[in-house]
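Record 1 of the preview.
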Amino acid sequence: MLKLTVCRSRQLSVESIAKDLQTSCCCLQITALTMCRELHGMGFHGRAATFKPCIIKCNAKRWMQWCKAH
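->
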């Protein structure tokens, strides 16, 4: 359910995703740190430099390679 929520809208913050999951599953208590750990394990590593409009393509490529390596 977490992966589907993130794939629908990737620009949401961790706190808003946690609130959405808590409202849908009322008995669940989820912290932001747990959400970050789970998303990192699924391969979601936050926003990368390619979303910034004023970045040079060669730097964006290097930044994406660094993000994937870490």
